[in-house]
Design brief:
The chain has a domain of 60 residues. The protein contains three helices and no strands. By secondary structure, it is mainly alpha-helical.
Length: 118
């Protein structure tokens, strides 16, 4: 069945355009998500500073401080991981789009190859 399905040259020529449109939408969502994560990271830093200040002022027990510190540190790590994932996705997609634009698809060679069934 797959051997009978053949993409048209028109579709292959439009693939970079289709990918760019998809990526433009995704990039918008990444920007929003990045903004939200950056705000959360800033809030996390503020909370960390408040916790330190409360410890210095003697307002927190050592146990409470340790628990809060671990929680804030874990949240910070999660946020930074998500930001790194967004950066990686952005970099990978930029590379893929560049590769797609530079690649020339020779449809006649693809069509001429007999279907091997694997």
């Amino acid at each position: 069945m797959l051997g009978m399905m053949q993409p048209t040259q028109e579709l292959l020529n439009r693939l970079p355009e289709i990918a760019k449109k998809y990526w433009a939408n995704r990039l918008g969502r990444i920007r929003v998500e990045r903004g939200q994560l950056s705000k959360r990271l800033s809030d996390n830093r503020t909370l960390h500073q408040k916790i330190l200040l409360q410890k210095v002022n003697g307002e927190l027990s050592p146990e409470d401080f340790q628990m809060l510190k671990e929680s804030v540190t874990q949240q910070k790590t999660e946020i930074e991981t998500k930001l790194t994932e967004l950066d990686t996705e952005n970099s990978n997609m930029d590379s893929l789009l560049q590769e797609t634009e530079n690649r020339v698809v020779n449809l006649s060679v693809w069509i001429a190859q007999p279907y091997s069934g694997t």
